[in-house]
User: Which sequence fits this backbone?
């Protein structure tokens, strides 16, 4: 086991550093132009959002529709920190990201409390309401400019920040799922009554999943805020939550690899479809349907394997 | 020696219905105890009260002298009462081994951070849990199925896996809810052997609900008969078989 762990560690870090080096070199040498550099950055942010939502929706098995709300909290609060706190620039951004993540995490805890009593559709409605409440508060909060928006946020988000933010999120989610805590989260999805009977404190693990998920949504929000440099509440609508959920579903509930792939594809796709101008969103929908169908074909199953099969593969 | 389980005057109301009334049960260490009764007698309700799924309206339940009424289901599981379910409740989309690892969580205590950072403590405990899971599975000859998904096991093995999972919490008392349901006579025979083995190997008391009289009379040392939520009789298999009230409840006048 220790041997296979070292191998896995090497693969994980190799993949992260390798892909970082390649992307970095391509960007520096100008092979990837500024336009695509921006898209790659958004891909990283969307990977964080998708993987983190997958922890609640895929592993805990609860349909959550308020992910944009957590992202908004992280975005606004981190922007507030970097705009108003007089820190040395090198320290300012990490602190801002951390505060963004932690405040979203606190919100996640608050949302998790009522969810302990609710399941399924009712839980989805609560989280949906939460997202809308956050957006409406931001609309009316003059401190953050209300509907006019929150301008002049320093442009701290670089490719390096976004990439390693995504890497940390993916690796943390992977380790969480492989630990006893992750197994307990999955057991809630599989059968709550049996989980309790096996000694799993289901309430505790529901809260854990929500809080983990919210933290990284906040981090994604912070990265987004310091990339786009101007925040307005209309970005964080239900549409945004649904968009993230679509990425999770397409990638496969409970598949981290799938989440990464689908977040990438669904972020890049609309850009590739720009040549269709007016028909772009129509094409996007069609491609989405085709991809959903293809996912259930034989070759699709290899790419988007569910979590259970993967662990099976890891054992052998 | 203190008794494993001491139930006194246990009762529960569901609205206006008195589902269980004035139940007394005493289980000694290592005892194989049977709980029988016609359908709807309240047997599973008793299990649900013992494991904290339902809160009894009155009475006390003591596990090794400690009152467990009002404790949550997972707390009771950690205190030493494990159970199986009448309708199999496995974690179907997880592997056989993972099913056991989840209940073995009661034996591990590394923190969240240790798990996420994969510190040495994580490896030490995970390796130990892994070995323990395989050891438990091998008692039931399930070690070769460890990496199969639980849903792909044949019915009899699924029932066995549920028992293995229950044993993962290292219980002092194991509750089996109709372990022989849906099994053929040969499988039932094997199950009887297994139950005896479990009792001896793990040194625990077992309380089982069963309709298969051959099994109950064959292995239980003491039996309580429930009817309409009240205790009809209590005694050794021989006593129960000759009890007039029991015969009446099962066969009519």
Assistant:
């Amino acid at each position: 086991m220790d041997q296979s762990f070292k191998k896995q560690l090497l693969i994980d870090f190799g993949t992260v550093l390798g892909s970082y080096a390649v992307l970095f070199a391509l960007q520096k040498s100008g092979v990837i132009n500024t336009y695509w550099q921006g898209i790659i950055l958004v891909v990283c942010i969307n990977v964080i959002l998708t993987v983190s939502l997958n922890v609640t929706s895929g592993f805990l098995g609860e349909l959550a529709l308020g992910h944009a709300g957590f992202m908004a909290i992280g975005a606004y609060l981190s922007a507030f920190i970097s705009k108003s706190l007089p820190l040395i620039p090198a320290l300012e951004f990490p602190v801002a990201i951390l505060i963004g993540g932690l405040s979203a995490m606190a919100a996640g805890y608050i949302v998790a409390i009522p969810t302990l009593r609710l399941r399924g559709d009712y839980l989805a409605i609560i989280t949906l309401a939460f997202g809308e409440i956050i957006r409406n508060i931001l609309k009316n909060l003059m401190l953050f400019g209300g509907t006019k928006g929150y301008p002049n946020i320093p442009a701290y988000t670089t490719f390096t920040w976004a990439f390693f933010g995504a890497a940390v999120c993916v690796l943390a989610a992977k380790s969480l799922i492989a630990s006893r805590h992750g197994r307990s989260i999955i057991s809630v999805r599989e059968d709550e009554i049996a989980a309790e009977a096996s000694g799993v404190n289901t309430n505790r693990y529901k809260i854990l999943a929500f809080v983990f998920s919210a933290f990284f949504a906040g981090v994604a929000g912070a990265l987004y805020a310091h990339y786009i440099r101007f925040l307005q509440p209309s970005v964080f609508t239900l549409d945004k939550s649904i968009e993230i959920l679509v990425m999770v579903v397409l990638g496969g509930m409970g598949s981290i690899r799938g989440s990464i792939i689908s977040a990438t594809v669904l972020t890049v796709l609309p850009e590739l479809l720009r040549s269709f101008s007016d028909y772009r969103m129509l094409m996007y929908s069609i491609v989405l349907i085709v991809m959903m169908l293809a996912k259930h074909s034989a070759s699709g199953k290899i790419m988007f394997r569910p979590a259970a099969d993967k662990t099976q593969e890891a054992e052998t | 020696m203190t008794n494993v389980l001491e139930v006194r005057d246990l009762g529960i109301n569901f609205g206006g219905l008195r589902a269980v009334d004035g139940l007394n049960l005493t289980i000694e260490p290592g005892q194989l105890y049977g709980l029988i009764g016609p359908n709807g007698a309240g047997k599973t309700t008793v299990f649900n009260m013992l494991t904290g799924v339902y809160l009894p309206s009155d009475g006390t339940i003591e596990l090794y002298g400690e009152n467990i009424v009002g404790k949550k289901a997972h707390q009771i599981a950690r205190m030493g009462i494990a159970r199986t379910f009448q309708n199999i409740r496995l974690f179907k989309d997880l592997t056989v081994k993972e099913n056991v690892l989840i209940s073995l969580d009661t034996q591990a205590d590394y923190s969240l951070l240790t798990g996420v950072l994969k510190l040495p403590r994580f490896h030490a405990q995970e390796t130990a849990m892994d070995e323990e899971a395989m050891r438990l599975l091998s008692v039931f000859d399930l070690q070769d199925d460890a990496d199969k998904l639980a849903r792909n096991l044949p019915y009899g093995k699924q029932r066995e896996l549920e028992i293995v999972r229950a044993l993962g919490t290292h219980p002092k008392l194991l509750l089996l809810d109709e372990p022989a349901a849906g099994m053929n006579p040969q499988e039932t025979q094997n199950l009887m052997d297994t139950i005896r083995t479990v009792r001896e190997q793990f040194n625990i008391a077992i309380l089982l609900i069963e309709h298969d009289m051959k099994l109950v009379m064959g292995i239980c040392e003491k039996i309580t008969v429930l009817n309409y939520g009240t205790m009809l009789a209590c005694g050794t298999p021989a006593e129960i078989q000759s009890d007039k009230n029991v015969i009446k409840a099962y066969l009519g006048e």
Notes: Chain A touches chain B at residues 1-2, 5, 9, 172, 175-176, 178-184, 186-187, 190-191, 193-202, 208, 306, 308, 311-312, 315-316 (CB under 8 Å). Chain A is about 80% helix and 0% strand. Chain A has two domains: 1-32, 33-237.
